[in-house]
């Protein structure tokens, strides 16, 4: 049960990756550009989290589903995977919206 939250993030990311691969929405459309965008988004949200932790705006919660591993004070390892998943989900949804809008403009979506 200790790895349930991390496992759920990883399984969800894998499923999202399959959708991305099938329709080439983000990472599978332009891999180098996508990795750069993910790195910038990841860095932004990591700095955001670290600043919030430093200001005691929030703290790490306890759950039996979490590993208990911290990469920094009050920063669980799951947060790093969640930040990556959040950024990837956002960009895949952006790619999907762009894909659907372009198909709609072409008149191929009913």
Mean pLDDT comes to: 95
Helix content: 55-70%
Written as H for each helix and E for each strand, in order along the chain, the element string is HHEEH
- The rounded distance between the terminal residues' Cα atoms is 45 Å
- Taking all Cα atoms into account, the compactness measure Rg is 17 Å
Structural class: mainly alpha
Beta-strand residue percentage? under 5%
Q: How many structural domains are formed by the residues?
A: 1
Strand order of the largest sheet: 1-2
Stretches where pLDDT is under 50 for at least 5 consecutive residues are none
Determine the number of helices (DSSP H or I, runs of at least 4 residues): 3
Shape, please?
A: elongated
Key structural traits:
single chain, 110 residues, mainly alpha, two-stranded antiparallel sheet, 3 helices, 2 strands, 5% strand, elongated
Describe the structure.
- This protein is mainly alpha-helical and 110 residues long.
- It has one domain.
- The chain contains 3 helices and 2 strands.
- The protein has a two-stranded antiparallel ribbon.
- A hairpin with a 2-residue loop joins strand 1 and strand 2 (75-76).
- The radius of gyration is 17 Å and the shape is elongated.
Set down the secondary structure blueprint:
Blueprint: H1 4-23, H2 31-54, E1 70-72, E2 75-76, H3 77-106
TL;DR?
α1 runs parallel beside α3 and α2 (31-54) packs across α3. The protein is elongated.
């Amino acid at each position: 049960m200790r790895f349930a939250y991390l496992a759920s993030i990883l399984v969800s990311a894998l499923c999202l990756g399959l959708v991305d691969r099938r329709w080439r929405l983000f990472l599978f459309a332009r891999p180098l550009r996508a990795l750069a965008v993910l790195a910038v988004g990841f860095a932004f949200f990591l700095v955001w989290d670290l600043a919030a932790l430093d200001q005691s705006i929030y703290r790490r919660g306890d759950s039996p589903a979490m590993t208990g591993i911290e990469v920094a004070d009050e920063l669980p390892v799951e947060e790093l995977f969640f930040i990556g998943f959040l950024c990837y989900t956002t960009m895949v949804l952006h790619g999907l919206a762009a894909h659907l809008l372009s198909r709609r403009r072409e008149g191929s979506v009913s």
